């Protein structure tokens, strides 16, 4: 948790920069109004973002945890609150509660290969983990990013993907369900990249984030390659209200996604995975 005293009280932030990432997805860079204290968080954690007078939604932090100046969130516009959030511009205010939830176990993966499998907006919650891996590159074996989107127009962070490919000791593979325009890259679902991806299944940790159906097939492909469930991590989404394990909105069986998740080791959530109402 941050030093903010009451976890139910939104802390005021102001938009420093609005970035249109794709036709329906945007990134907000935010600064705390109450001072220059850095906002410490772990990769995979989320904040409750409150658009004043409209509502509050959980959004993962997509910025760099190794240099937590300000706060960065990447959001896909789907409904009431995210549409209102899209209207915010430099200087506008937003309430922030958090950071909440569990993290991608980046440090525990030291010594191993790391494979990151992202679908669509799922790359946003994984980007902080990538920053942390890159900042500590020497501690890991291979780092492999497999990223799938619906079309080339949906690919997030295109400039960074190019940089990661070019500058770092890292394998980056992008695929799209449907090729449009002058796309010459991979076509097909992201799971199709797993059988040939260059990692050693006996010493690999996998971080997976995307729609549940995509995560289900990804886990199956990783298992086929020989990864055991205790080395596969997924990030779950459920409707949330309090964000701190009080209201029960995000409950799946005995666990609260806001507190025991959103990042789960697969063997801890396996029996509940894929069930909407348990
Ligand atoms: C832990 C956690 C982290 C999250 N991180 C992010 C993130 O980094 N970026 C991001 O864009 N979203 C993220 N989400 C999802 C985000 O919280 C929802 O998209 C948001 O709450 C929708 O609110 P709304 O008021 O705009 O839409 P609503 O008015 O609540 O919903 C409008 C319509 O969109 C549908 N809808 C709602 N949520 C989603 C969804 N996730 N995907 C597709 N359709 C949906 C609803 O079923 C409904 O039909 C996260 C969710 C959780 C639980
Ligand atoms: S959102 Fe209230 S318990 Fe998780």
From TrEMBL:
Keywords: 2Fe-2S, Iron, Iron-sulfur, Metal-binding. It comes from Sumerlaea chitinivorans. The lineage of its organism: Bacteria, Candidatus Sumerlaeota, Candidatus Sumerlaeia, Candidatus Sumerlaeales, Candidatus Sumerlaeaceae. InterPro entries: Cyt_c3_hydrogenase_gsu, Dihydroorotate_DH_Fe-S-bd, FAD-bd_FR_type, Flavoprot_Pyr_Nucl_cyt_Rdtase, FNR_nucleotide-bd, OxRdtase_FAD/NAD-bd, PyrK_electron_transfer, Riboflavin_synthase-like_b-brl. GO terms for biological process: pyrimidine nucleotide biosynthetic process. [2Fe-2S] cluster binds at residues 242, 247, 250, 258. One of its GO terms (molecular function) is oxidoreductase activity. Its cofactor is [2Fe-2S] cluster. It holds the Pfam family DHODB_Fe-S_bind. This is Group 3b Ni,Fe-hydrogenase, subunit gamma. CDD domains: sulfite_reductase_like (cd06221). Residues 8-106 form the FAD-binding FR-type domain. Binds 1 [2Fe-2S] cluster per subunit.
């Amino acid at each position: 948790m941050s030093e903010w005293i009451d976890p139910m009280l939104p802390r005021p932030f102001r938009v420093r920069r609005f970035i249109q990432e794709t036709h329906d997805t945007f990134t907000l860079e935010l600064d705390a109004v109450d001072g220059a204290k850095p906002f410490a968080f772990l990769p995979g954690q989320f904040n409750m973002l409150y658009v004043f007078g409209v509502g509050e939604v959980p959004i993962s932090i997509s910025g760099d945890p190794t240099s937590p100046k300000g706060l960065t969130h990447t959001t896909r516009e789907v409904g009431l609150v995210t549409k209102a959030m899209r209207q915010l511009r430099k200087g506008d205010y937003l309430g922030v509660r958090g950071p909440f939830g569990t993290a991608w176990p980046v440090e525990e993966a030291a010594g191993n290969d790391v494979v990151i499998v992202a679908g669509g907006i799922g790359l946003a919650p994984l980007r902080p983990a990538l920053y942390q891996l890159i900042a500590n590159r020497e501690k890991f074996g291979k780092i492999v990013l497999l990223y799938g989107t619906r079309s080339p127009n949906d690919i997030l962070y295109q400039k960074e993907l190019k940089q990661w490919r070019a500058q770092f000791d890292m394998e980056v593979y992008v695929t799209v369900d449907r090729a449009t325009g002058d796309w010459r890259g991979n076509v097909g679902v992201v799971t199709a990249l797993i059988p040939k991806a260059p990692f050693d299944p006996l010493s690999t940790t996998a971080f997976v984030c995307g729609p549940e159906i995509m995560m289900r097939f990804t886990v199956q492909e990783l298992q086929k390659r020989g990864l055991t469930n205790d080395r596969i991590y997924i990030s779950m989404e459920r409707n949330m209200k309090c964000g701190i394990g009080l209201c029960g909105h995000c409950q799946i069986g005995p666990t609260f996604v806001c507190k025991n998740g959103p990042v789960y080791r697969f063997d801890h959530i396996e029996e509940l995975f894929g069930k909407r109402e348990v």
